[in-house]
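Protein in question quoted in full.
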Amino acid sequence: MSAGAPPFPLDARATTALVRAALEEDQAFNDVTTLSTVPVEACARGAMVSRVEGVVAGLPLALAAFQALSSATVAQVVVPDGTTVPAGGVVAKLEGPARALLSAERVALNFVQRLSGIATLTARYVQAVHGTRARIYDTRKTTPLLRALEKYAVRCGGGVSHRADLAEAVLIKDNHLAALGGDIALAVRRARAAGRPGICVEVECDDLAQAEAALAASADVILLDNMSLEQMRACVARVAGRVPLEASGGVTLDRVRAIAATGVDRISVGALTHSGASIDVGLDFWW
């Protein structure tokens, strides 16, 4: 299953800054091994190859890394972001100064391996709920400073981005309610009054009674937190499609299909970004 590439979240300036910071962290401009062993005039060709089947994400960063070492590097994308590559499939072809290709290799691969891992895991969740009404959402459980990229990778895998940050939407959780004595109606009223016009107000609920209170308070979305399948089905029947229902907590690949079958509209999965394993992508050279 391929989702196709969504818009890349970083502009050219932000991409350049991030990639340069990663290259500097790796001391790619002072690669003593390459500088001491590879002649400055040497040229090379290479292919970025996926050792496993997966969904590609992060190529713009990888290509920017090679370009940062030498603008003479020429790249051909074979399998673009958001597309499934088979095991052994070529993702991109590269040609240019050998020093640039060798010194940028690890940073370029790190970006693609990490983001493709997220995209690939997301695609598995999306496939698992195929045919139901549920869509797979990410969360804010992301690597600090890499959220935009990790959420992009989720979209490459066919998932949907939840709120990008704390300012984008209201999500009233149990700790917020505790500050108001558990009064859901009051919490929603305060959120409406303080938030910008039209802002989405979502309420996290632990049981059917709280879900009914959130519905009565005119919440825009009701989050069913760590509920059993039976509890979810009861909430779906009670809400009857009046507002979207989101299931969250304890979601695994083994369980996600059963959760989707309860009739919820959304399933948020923190594991997409906090537990996705990098896929194995290598760079094979020839001279």
Summary: The radius of gyration is 23 Å. The chain has a mean pLDDT of 96.
